[in-house]
Amino acid sequence: MIDVEDLIALVRNYNPRTNADLIRRAYAYGRQMHEGQFRHSGEPYFTHPVAVAAILTEQRLDDATIVTALLHDTIEDTKSTYTEVARLFGEDIAELVNGVTKLTNLELSSAQSKQAENFRKLFMAMSKDLRVILVKLADRLHNMRTIKSMRPEKQAQKARETMEIFAPLAGRMGMQWMREELEDLAFRVLNPEARNSIIRRFITLQRETGDVVHKITADIRLELEKAQIEADVYGRAKKPYSIWRKMQEKDLAFSRLSDIYGFRVICKDVADCYRILGVIHQRWRAVPGRFKDYVSQPKSNGYRSIHTTVSGRDGKRVEVQIRTRQMHEVAEAGVAAHWSYREGVRVHNPFAVDPAKWIASLTERLDEDDHDEFMENVKLEMYTDQVFCFTPKGDVIQLPRGATPLDFAYAIHTRIGHSTVSAKIDGIRVPLWTRLKNGQSVEIITAEGQRPQASWIDIATTGRAKAAIRRSLREEDRGRFVKLGQELARAAFDHVGRKATDKALRTAAKMLGLPDETELLAQLGSAELTARKVVETLYPELARSSGPEVDVRRPVVGLSDDQQFRRAKCCQPVPGERIVGITYRGQGVVIHAIDCPALEEFEEQPSRWIDLHWHTGRHAAVHTVTLDLTISNDAGVLGRICTLIGEQKANISDLRFTDRKPDFYRLLVDVDLRDVEHLHTLMTALEAETDVAQITRHRDLSRKP
What we know:
The protein is of the alpha+beta class. Helix content is 47%, strand content 17%.
């Protein structure tokens, strides 16, 4: 394990003004909190946070981020609390540690709808402070480097998650080195045979042709010396996963792959970049269609570089990247370059992107309601490259590959997108679903009175366009949302003994920065604003008091007085979760959790859906939830579990065994709970119990609603 003074020395290398005392205190506190905890490998657990902090020093990050790394598991895995961390290390660091804790907890579910919700929360956490995700990525990198000590099934799960979410996210943030290492570490777990095969072929190739990288590097240096250009030249073989992916995409054998080597030329200024490009193209033949100029058209994460592929020695294709030193710093650190330090001061790099602007491009789609659409667009925009198209005036619009004229229109302005009727590409009229290509000139034809169509959702590909189209379509339901908002406001105000008068709502709207009470009611009805928030704004003292319990006979808002209702047995929703009602002829309304897979069968029957919300306030502990527990088969274990559930003020209403083995029992336990917070508290307490091997919330789709 890295000693605290060695860690401080790593920080001092780039930030001599570091607050060494703060790091020492965080190191000592983290070590004390994790005392007695061990990793799967048998090492003391605290070796992990220290290693994560060391990874972040490589990115030259500030003291707050380094301290967050040392403390990132304390709130989740030890007796430490947010309040204590805030008292000892400040509110800023406590917020960062809490943000990392929330991200860690997101990984517990792999269901598609849950994963979509995870992405939402991931991006929301990032939007508050991007350093949260930098710590999380370093945490994942160290876990992947030490993954061999985990169980094989856990290794596979972590590797898939890394390949699908964290590696592309690192790439999207411009941290290409981290993306490549995460991909390679995951590839080693998911397909070790393919990886070893590629490495063996590299060794054979090197034996046959000699050190190609050294030879080509020397060739490039010689040409630059002739042209009297000062620059550093580096070369390397591409990573096994990068090669394997190319083999799969192009359906080629290894022997037929050409550009398996990459070279990087780093120079002083932009003018030298283009001089070097000229030197390389004069000496070697450029491969058509393989030239990209990210210097004049940078990527959204600030990445700038010239890419060209040329036919080098023996006709072998090699990729050459040309960039300045400042561009290289951004290419290595990505969005993290914003926090980089050198010699005690934050580096001002003109090419570093503003994290707030960058994250806005990802959070535009956070209000997407459709889980599949949300996931598809997030993954699309994280994995794909960019296309650059021109307006008739010559302005450049940057879009993800696969974008359509509709995306182009919304990228210019939402008003233009809404009024689009058709488009021309290079002067020729085309359908709105046409895929755009690099360098095309696009003209959008608009008409007054045009409104977005429902079919546009399937045509648009960018999060910005989809979100704008959905917002417009929702405006047509504004009247319905206002009506529901009135009911929610009335119920919330009644709960604290007040009346939801027009004047009260106008005052609340003004305090919340909304134009009027109608907008406030519409946002209440569309769940963009909670009734609790409105009440807290006007009556903070009343809102904080517990008040009377919610009437157990009418716990939801949105039903008429004569409508009967019941909770769906398949998903067992509890107060605090988003819900929806499905009407059944002669049987009333069945309340489902919004992410219940059973809702799929009603997708084509929108008339049966009812917007519902739980009443704000304290609910009685009468909402049954089934927990799936795996516990040790030892004397007294079941008794301790039952006692623990009772200590959490939860009543066991049923208990049944589903599997009995010599060393463990698996059982389903029905517990009566107040709300989702009560559920989370109970599951956390059970998960911390040594004799509980696994705990999940049981959902049985075979049970009728």
